[in-house]
Amino acid sequence: MIAKEKILKGFETAEARWARFGPYYAMFPLEFAFDVVEKYSKNGDYIIDPFAGRCSSIYAGGVLGRNSLGLEINPVGWLYGTVKLQPAEKEEVIDRLLEIYSKRNYYNRAIQKMPEFYRICYCDEVLKFLLAARTHLDWRYNRVDATLMSILLIYLHAKIGEGLSNQMRMTKSMGMNYSVQWWKKNNMTTPPEINPCDFILKKIEWRYEKGKPKVTESAVVFGDSSNKLINIAERAINNDIKFSLLFTSPPYYSITDYHADQWLRLWLLGGSENPQSLKDKHKGRFVNKQEYYDLLDNVFGLCAKMMKRESIVYARTDKREFTFNSTLEILKKHFPNHSVKIVEKPLTKDTKTQTKLFGDKTMKPGEVDIIMSRNEPTQ
């Protein structure tokens, strides 16, 4: 098993190159994920994260020899997670890239009808290529297509020269009107001319240069934990599989909308051409306190059925009163015999967190780690 330090520093191993795969808003710091997995579980243990995000917890578990299971409702996070656990073969991904690129000219007329945002964000060659990928990549069910699509998602928008787009942020999709106004104000209405095939080919070559990561059997399930966990818990109980570590950071009440934050990447996956908050349950910003409470109650209740008697629960949450109190109350309800340790994590200027919103310079209350156990943590 590769040393943790070789994964967290540099890009000299396959595990290190794939560890940072996928920019995602309010993601777990990689070092934090590896530290928790290493300290609170041991080789061969089963780990679960029902709110997996871009799946850093699951990747850390898999690389460190734990059997890890994540669940994620956002397809962007799910794609990042499932691909870095088991990317397709490089040659197959390159062949598929060339095939998709060859279809781009079927979309010459389609790009003419697209909103102004897209015409300023991407040059014609890139935009035609993206429409071909959006139409033909079966990312949900084909591993090669999933791998290529996830790489496209990473570089879909970023600073000029670092991605396929005009000047943009990488982790979060900015609004259409805001972006257009910003580009016009800064005299940047002409997108950079990029050959998307050459650009993505270089990214593929770099990502695979050290090979594919060695990961213990681990997986990420796509969907709503409150539904998917019902069958998962039943199968785990029937097969006598017990999880040793529940390691997660549930969504924070009334903070951010993960689907709106990733609207442009969701568009590439077949979503709406115009960004909007989704109305589907558990896919938008949580503003109904009862729905939020019920979600955590349901998910942690289902997880509790699969946990070992001497399991560890490690939940990072928001210090604000309702989110913290709700999370703690629900965890105590479902793990009544576990002792509780609270560790405050104040924000610093470099902190990346769900509570520190883009454009909001005020310091938020910070985050809190809730650590519950019946035994001392594994050293």
Structural summary, described in words:
This protein is of the alpha/beta class and 379 residues long. Helices cover 42% and strands 12% of the residues. The protein is built from 16 helices and seven strands. The chain has helices at 4-8, 14-19, 30-40, 56-63, 75-85, 90-101, 116-121, 124-136, 143-154, 176-185, 196-208, 225-238, 258-261, 263-268, 289-304, 321-334; strands at 46-49, 67-72, 219-222, 243-248, 307-318, 339-345, 367-373. It has a seven-stranded mixed beta sheet with strand order 3-2-1-4-5-7-6, with helices on both faces. Helix 4 links the parallel strand 1 and strand 2. Helix 6 packs across helix 9 and helix 6 (90-101) runs antiparallel to helix 11 (196-208). The longest helix has 16 residues, at 289-304.
List keywords for this structure.
seven-stranded mixed sheet, 379 residues, 16 helices, alpha/beta
Q: What structural class do the secondary elements suggest?
A: alpha/beta
**How large is the count of helical segments?**
16
Question: How many strands, what sense, and barrel or not for the largest sheet?
Answer: 7 strands, mixed
Overall number of strands: 7
Q: Which bin fits the share of residues in helices? A: 40-55%
Residue fraction in strands: 5-15%
Which parts are unreliable, with pLDDT below 50 for 5 consecutive residues or more?
A: 282-286, 351-363
Overall pLDDT, averaged?
89
Q: Shape from CA axes?
A: globular
Secondary-structure element order, N to C:
HHHEHEHHHHHHHEHEHHHEHEE
Strand order of the largest sheet: 3-2-1-4-5-7-6
Give the termini separation. Answer: 17 Å
Radius of gyration: 21 Å
